Amino acid sequence: MDKAFTRVDETFEAIRDSLNQQAINNIARKLAQDLRRAQQARIRSQKAPDGTAWTPRRRRVTRIQERIRFIWNNETRTLKNWHHDTGKYGRTITGWDEDKNNIRTFYRDDIDRFLEIRTRRINQDSTKHVPMFVKLRTARYLKASADASGVTVG
């Protein structure tokens, strides 16, 4: 087996010796670009160098506190993912206001009456599938350099 590799090396050395420096640099640059493209494709397909698939990301679980409904300034407000806190002027309830589509804080003293309080927490799966190492496969991070002595990608 070593004899076969030795003959291949001798053949490539003979070809390299017959080329000028600019041609060697051009070939090395093209090899580096092709190698980088191959690595980018491998990262995009989420596979290891040996061809096995990467272990997928762990499942994200979003915890959401159910809703609370109350009357505030003669308006019915509904908050989800809410929690109690203490503000500058007293106890508060902070959460996602479904009517205003924003995070709101209400002082408990300003709330006239509670209509519904659900304290059960819900665990929701995140449906968004985000591949791993998206930035890593860009040219900014996966540099390719080439010169007469060799090719480097990484």
TrEMBL record:
Q: Which Pfam families would you find in this protein's record? A: Phage_tail_S (PF05069)
Which InterPro entries does the UniProt entry name for this protein?
Phage_virion_morphogenesis
UniProt name for this protein: Phage morphogenesis protein
